[in-house]
Structures are given as C-alpha cells and as structure tokens.
C-alpha cells in the first residue's frame, strides 16, 4: 500500500512538472540562456538574501506579481512610481517588495545591461518566494517586455476582498483563467498578512442589525475583534480611508501639509494612529509563513479572513475544488503545490508584451 502511494506521488509529480512547463508561444523557459545565462540565479540569490532578512517579503513578492498581471497584463506596470500610477491606487498601497525587484534589476544591469525585463524579474521573484516559503518550484517562461502605461484607474480589474464568487469568476475569466485557477491562485493567501481595514466590516455590523458575518467561526470572531478593534468614524467616512494623511503621509513628511494644522490635531484626536485599521492579521491562521494547504482547511472551518476567500467554501461551485486540496484526497498538500505552479504559469502569461509592444526598462520604477 505504501509502495503504491509512493508510485502515485511520483507519477503525479512528473505529470505536474510537465504541466508546469506549458507556456505561451510568446514566452518560453530559458529565454535568457544565451543573452544573460545568470539571470535566474541572480534573481534567486537576491530574493533569498532579502527574504532571509525579512520573511514577510515572500508573500509581498507573490502578491506584487499577482497585482501586476491583473492590470494591463504581466508588464511590470505596478512598479512605476509617481502620481496617478497603479502603485498609488488604494488596493496597491500595501504592496511590498519593490526594493527586492530594484536590487535584482541593479545587479542584472551590471552583468547584462538592457537585457532582462522588470516583468520577468517579477515572475521569477514570485516563484522564488514560494520556494523560500516551502512550496514546490516550477519553470518560469520568460521573454516579457515592460509596459509603457501605468494608471491608477485601471486597478478596477483587481479582485476585491468583498467580491462574490460570481464576480471573482468573471474577473478571472476576463484574464483567461478558469474556476480551478481561481481557487488555486487565491491559495497564495497561505502566506502573508492582511490589514484589518480590508475585512473589518465582517466583524462589525456586517448586516443592518449590527451582527458579524455568520459564516465566521464564532470563537474566531472574538479573536479577530481583539486584533482589529472597531474603527471610529467621522460623519459618513471611517478614519481608515484618510488615516494615511494624518500619519506617515510620505517617507519624509509625517502628515499631509495641505491640512490646516489646527484641524490636523483635531483629526488625530478623533483618529489615533493605531486605531486598528492598519493592524495586520495572518491570511492563514497558524501557518502564515509556510506555503501549504492549511489555508483551505481554514476555509472549511469558517476561518477565512476575507469575505471573498470564505465565499469559496460557501459556494457549491468552488467548494468541491477547495475539498480537492484537503487531506488525503489532496495528497497531503501535494495536489495544491503542483497545481499552484501550473496556474501561476498561466497567470504569468496574461497579456504579455513582446517585441515592439514593450521595452526593457533601465530602472523598474520609471519608463525609459
């Protein structure tokens, strides 16, 4: 019996590796083998160095790639700095890992100037961050070029924390991804944390009677409410939506200088800096630093943090896919690990730009 299970696992791994190698005609594995053979190893060593210093950068890099691909395709448009860019949009304000990409780009430019795109660095760094967190590796097709457009308004394409399953399916389908890809890629929430502001509505007054979301495990609600105290509100707007103007507005200015100083002090009294909105909670309670399938067990137990996550268990069309990744049926996490790589390759080829459709940026945060 044990021998047969081992054979099944080996066959599964081989099939998984074959599937993971599937790519579009525009990108392919080993794109830099002759022009910059050290490209992947340089990105890997850079990611390893940064993640060893700060493990929270691993989920940050994975999320950075996801947010990039869902807006304008996988073209590094999320990396562009400046007013009105994707990077400044509300859903992207909490993204992390920019410094890792910049560091890798600097090293690559020293060895192979003008060759490796920032979009490819993002795709490689996402893979390496998963491996650093204990997940399986996969081969990343490369050959993307960097985009020349980055607009904050375009982030409406991103899946939202309160999206229903139908809305999530639509947004993924618009990018050429199916329901299995949806359930699999959202499993990236097995690592990392999320700010309370993105799910606090589930804890307080979820419905008009003031109750919390009934789909949350009752014992878990009290834990989350302790971590995320109820936010104050002024009139019709909650502090969380303008708190950044009051504290750490920019890296060198503590508050927004356009606010009247006397009014600023009033606002800071009403909205203390640590009012709970910016507190962070693990997506995958009990396993936030390990890339595994426990995220799906948390959904089954009513411990999904985001409304959009928990909906995957509550909706019959996605529940069966979640169940595939659990327990022995999911080969103790192996099924998820292999299929995650396959779906990541599909996602990494969303609307890729090649040839004259893009550029190789000199600096990832600015167009040439």
TrEMBL record:
Role, per record: Removal of H(2)O(2), oxidation of toxic reductants, biosynthesis and degradation of lignin, suberization, auxin catabolism, response to environmental stresses such as wounding, pathogen attack and oxidative stress. These functions might be dependent on each isozyme/isoform in each plant tissue.
One CC-aspect GO term: extracellular region
Residues at the catalytic site: 67 (proton acceptor)
Binding site for Ca(2+) 1: 68, 71, 73, 75, 77, 86
Residues engaged in binding Ca(2+) 2: 190, 284, 292
Domain of life per record: Eukaryota
Protein's GO biological process: defense response to fungus; hydrogen peroxide catabolic process; response to oxidative stress
Site positions for Transition state stabilizer: 63
Disulfide bonds: 36-112, 69-74, 118-364, 196-271
GO molecular function, one term: lactoperoxidase activity
Domain Plant heme peroxidase family profile per the UniProt entry, residue ranges: 26-368
Cofactor: Ca(2+); heme b
Keyword list, A-Z: Calcium, Disulfide bond, Heme, Hydrogen peroxide, Iron, Metal-binding, Oxidoreductase, Peroxidase, Secreted, Signal
Protein name, UniProt field: Peroxidase
Binding residue positions for substrate: 159
A Pfam family the protein falls into: peroxidase
Catalyzed reactions per annotation: 2 a phenolic donor + H2O2 = 2 a phenolic radical donor + 2 H2O
Statement: the UniProt record of this protein carries the keyword Oxidoreductase: yes
Signal sequence range: 1-24
Record flagged with keyword Glycoprotein: no
Note on how the cofactor is bound: Binds 2 calcium ions per subunit. Binds 1 heme b (iron(II)-protoporphyrin IX) group per subunit.
Chief location: secreted
Places the protein is found: Secreted
EC number assigned by the record: 1.11.1.7
Family annotation (PROSITE patterns): PEROXIDASE_1, PEROXIDASE_2, PEROXIDASE_4
Family label: Belongs to the peroxidase family. Classical plant (class III) peroxidase subfamily. Belongs to the peroxidase family. Ascorbate peroxidase subfamily.
């Amino acid at each position: 019996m044990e021998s047969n299970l081992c054979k099944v696992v080996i066959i599964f791994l081989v099939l998984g590796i074959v599937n993971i190698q599937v790519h579009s005609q525009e990108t392919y594995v080993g794109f830099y083998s002759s022009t910059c053979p050290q490209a992947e190893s340089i990105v890997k060593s850079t990611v390893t160095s940064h993640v060893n210093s700060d493990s929270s950068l691993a989920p940050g890099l994975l999320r950075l790639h996801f947010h990039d691909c869902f807006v304008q395709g996988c073209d590094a448009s999320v990396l562009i700095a400046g007013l009105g860019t994707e990077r400044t949009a509300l859903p992207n304000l909490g993204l992390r890992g920019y410094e890792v990409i910049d560091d890798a780009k600097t090293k690559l430019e020293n060895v192979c100037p003008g060759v490796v795109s920032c979009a490819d660095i993002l795709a490689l760094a996402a893979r390496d961050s998963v491996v650093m967190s204990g997940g399986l590796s996969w081969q990343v097709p490369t050959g993307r070029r960097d985009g020349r457009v980055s607009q904050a308004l375009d982030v409406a394409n991103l899946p939202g924390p309160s999206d229903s399953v139908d809305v999530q399916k639509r947004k993924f389908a618009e990018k050429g991804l199916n329901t299995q890809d949806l359930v699999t890629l959202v499993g990236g929430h097995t690592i990392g944390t999320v700010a309370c502001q993105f799910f606090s509505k589930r804890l307080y007054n979820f419905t008009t009677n003031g109750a919390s979301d009934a789909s949350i495990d009752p014992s878990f609600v009290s834990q989350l409410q302790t971590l995320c105290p109820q936010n104050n509100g002024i009139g019709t707007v909650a502090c969380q939506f303008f708190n950044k103007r009051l504290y750490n507005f920019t890296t060198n200015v503590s508050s927004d200088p356009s606010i009247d100083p006397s009014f600023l002090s009033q606002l800071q009294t009403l909205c203390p800096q640590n009012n709970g909105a910016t507190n962070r909670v693990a997506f995958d309670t009990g396993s936030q630093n390990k890339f595994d399938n426990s995220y799906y067990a948390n959904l089954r137990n009513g411990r999904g943090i985001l409304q959009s996550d928990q909906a995957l268990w509550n909706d019959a069309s996605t529940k069966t896919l979640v169940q595939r990744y659990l327990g022995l049926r999911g080969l103790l996490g192996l099924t998820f690990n292999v299929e995650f790589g396959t779906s990541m390759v599909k996602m990494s080829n969303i609307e890729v730009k090649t040839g004259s459709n893009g550029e190789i940026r000199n600096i990832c945060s600015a167009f040439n």
